[in-house]
Specification:
This protein has about 110 residues and is an alpha/beta fold. It has one domain (about 1-110): Transcription Regulator spoIIAA. The chain is built from 4 helices and 5 strands, in the order E-E-E-H-E-H-E-H-H. It has helices at about 35-50, 70-80, 95, 105-110, and strands at about 1-10, 15-20, 25-35, 55-70, 85. It has a 5-stranded mixed β-sheet, covered by helices on one side. Helix 1 packs parallel to helix 2 (about 70-80). It is globular.
Length: about 110
């Protein structure tokens, strides 16, 4: 069930954030560039989702993420370290693993 999405355009490009929920998962799909004001918007959506988890997992789908700025990369890293599952990280995979595990494949890292 889709419960909300946000889309707009500013100097940093466009980002669409779609949040959907099931009994087991809160899913956040990112489409576009995570930069500028969009970082704060994603942080707001993530913080609200954490409060309403009720035992569910948060999953971020990065398949259609086209870019980030430094703040966007940092937020994704923080979310991942807090236990958020990152799906389809593609180009962002080495950043999420960190320098200690950069040589591992995605399957090895997921264990």
């Amino acid at each position: 069930m889709r419960i909300g999405w946000r889309r707009a355009c500013n100097g940093n490009g466009m980002l669409r954030i779609t949040k959907s929920e099931t009994e087991q998962v809160v899913s956040i799909e990112l489409e576009g560039k995570l930069a500028g004001a969009w970082v704060a918007e994603l942080e707001h959506i993530y913080t609200a989702a954490k409060i309403q988890l009720q035992g569910r997992e948060i999953v971020v789908d990065m398949k259609n993420l086209t870019g980030t700025d430094t703040a966007g990369r940092y937020l994704l890293l923080v979310m991942q370290r807090e236990g958020v599952a990152m799906e389809n990280p593609g180009f962002y995979y080495p950043m999420l693993l960190g320098p200690d595990r950069a040589g591992e494949s995605w399957r090895e890292a997921k264990g």
